[in-house]
């Protein structure tokens, strides 16, 4: 493969979710790249149409960065036999319509994610209790059930626990767990196969409980229309639907109102960052599962340092597990301070995007709503681009995640805005001063 094209793909891979890269970039085959013309081979027109609408701009701009000149992207459709050969030797295989599975294989949920291992506190009690009820009486208690909260607080843990418990109580219960990306990719796979009947059979007829993770990423009118009908069919038949999201339905951008209203039909429960006592209990529970003794003062020290994320608590324990020789060496606060100082320092540098938005809005004399609005006036675009630039630098979020925080914008819009700031701060001293002042604020 052309070295320039390999570099383009490597850069794009860093800024996309793995599932998006695998679905839309890994299948691309390079036909030629001569001068400023990049020719790609793709399977069919449906793939090409979707790729052009959503990812061609990202590909073109990245190619221009690598080559240092304007690039035009062209496409060629592969004949089926050649594509099948390419798929066998490198790209993901695509089933023929007759081979597409109708009934999903039974899901084996990770053994560690159970209701018993979920540490309950005031911040998550409602979601936990409702999840228990749903698993015991699917389709009857809270349907749909919508869980929302920040990253790393246990939403997926609850989804797994609901599915696992429902299977244990009723071995004939068919549970389907998907992310919104998986649902979208499935839909377009079956569209390419021209076999939407099997798609509908998989998601409507062949499951009793549908668990959908990160529903806030359900994008595109066609995807949302299909999901709307999926929801209606499941709910009509008394089948349980459970969603997770990083925000309540009322705050999800770019979602159809009819779908938003469906999300709000049942129970909505939030999961908040755990309180100090809950964080200590989480550490004790996780340490026990790792067979690692942990003194109260060590657990308290970690819990005081990590306030907002259960996964970060677990990461601290894993670091100390290695430092204590697999739990065989006694842990002290001093050892914890020494072994965790680099990790905690790096974590403390993460600035929430919401905090960045507030600071930028105040500096430019506008509101946060202005930053996330659809308005493209220069008076709004400049501060929005600055906020995106700072979010990329201080929040450690990907381009798609930043776009989601700015009214559901496409990742290519985020990249373009960031490049705009990078370009102008070199020549615009007033903009450079504004950005430096804001950066110093976040470095304190």
Protein described:
56% of the residues lie in helices and 10% in strands. The chain is an alpha/beta fold and 444 residues long. A hairpin with a 2-residue loop joins strand 1 and strand 2. Helix 6 (125-136) packs parallel to helix 7 (155-169), helix 16 packs antiparallel against helix 18 (378-394) and helix 18 (378-394) packs across helix 20. The longest helix has 17 residues, at 378-394. The protein is globular. It starts with a helix and ends with a helix.
Query: How far do the termini sit from each other?
Result: 46 Å
> What Rg, in angstroms, do the CA atoms define?
24 Å
Strand residue percentage: 5-15%
> With helices defined by DSSP (H or I, 4 residues minimum), what is the helix count?
21
What is the H-and-E element order?
HHEEHHEHHEHEHHEHEHEHHHHHHHHHH
């Amino acid at each position: 493969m052309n070295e320039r094209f390999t570099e383009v793909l490597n850069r794009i891979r860093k800024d996309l979710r793995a599932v998006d890269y695998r679905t839309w970039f890994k299948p691309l085959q390079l036909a030629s790249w001569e001068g400023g013309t990049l020719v790609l081979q793709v399977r069919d027109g449906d793939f090409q149409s979707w790729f052009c609408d959503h990812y061609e701009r990202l590909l073109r701009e990245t190619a221009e960065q690598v080559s240092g000149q304007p690039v035009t992207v062209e496409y060629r459709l592969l004949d089926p036999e050649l594509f099948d050969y390419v798929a066998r030797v490198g790209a993901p295989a695509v089933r023929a319509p007759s081979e597409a599975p109708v009934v999903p294989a039974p899901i084996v949920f990770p053994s560690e994610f159970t209701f018993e291992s979920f540490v309950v506190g005031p911040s998550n009690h409602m979601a936990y209790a409702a999840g228990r009820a749903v698993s015991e009486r699917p389709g009857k208690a809270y349907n749909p059930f919508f869980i929302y909260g920040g990253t790393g607080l246990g939403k997926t843990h609850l989804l797994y626990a609901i599915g696992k418990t429902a299977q244990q109580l009723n071995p004939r219960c068919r549970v389907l767990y998907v992310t919104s990306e998986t649902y979208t990719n499935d839909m377009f796979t079956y569209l390419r196969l021209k076999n939407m009947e099997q798609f509908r059979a998989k998601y409507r007829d062949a499951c009793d409980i549908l668990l959908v993770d990160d529903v806030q990423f359900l994008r595109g009118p066609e995807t949302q229309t299909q999901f709307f009908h999926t929801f209606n069919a499941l709910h009509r038949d008394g089948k349980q639907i459970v969603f997770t999201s990083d925000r309540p339905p009322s705050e999800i951008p770019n979602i159809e109102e009819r779908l938003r209203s469906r999300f709000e039909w049942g129970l909505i429960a939030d999961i908040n960052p755990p309180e100090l006592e809950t964080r200590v209990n989480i550490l004790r529970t996780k340490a026990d599962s790792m067979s690692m003794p942990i003194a109260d003062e060590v657990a308290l020290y970690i819990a005081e340092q990590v306030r907002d994320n259960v996964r970060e608590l677990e990461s601290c324990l894993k670091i100390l597990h290695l430092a204590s020789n697999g739990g065989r060496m006694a842990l002290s606060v001093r050892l914890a301070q020494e072994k965790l100082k680099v990790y905690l320092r790096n974590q403390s540098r993460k600035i929430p995007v919401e905090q960045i938005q507030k600071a930028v809005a105040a500096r430019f004399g506008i509101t946060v709503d202005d930053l996330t609005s659809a308005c493209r006036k220069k008076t709004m675009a400049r501060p929005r681009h600055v906020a995106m630039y700072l979010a990329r630098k201080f929040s450690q979020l990907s381009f798609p995640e930043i776009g989601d925080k700015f009214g559901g914008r496409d990742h290519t819009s985020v990249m373009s805005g960031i490049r705009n700031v990078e370009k102008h701060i070199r020549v615009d001293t007033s903009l450079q001063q504004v950005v430096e002042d804001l950066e110093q604020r976040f470095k304190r």
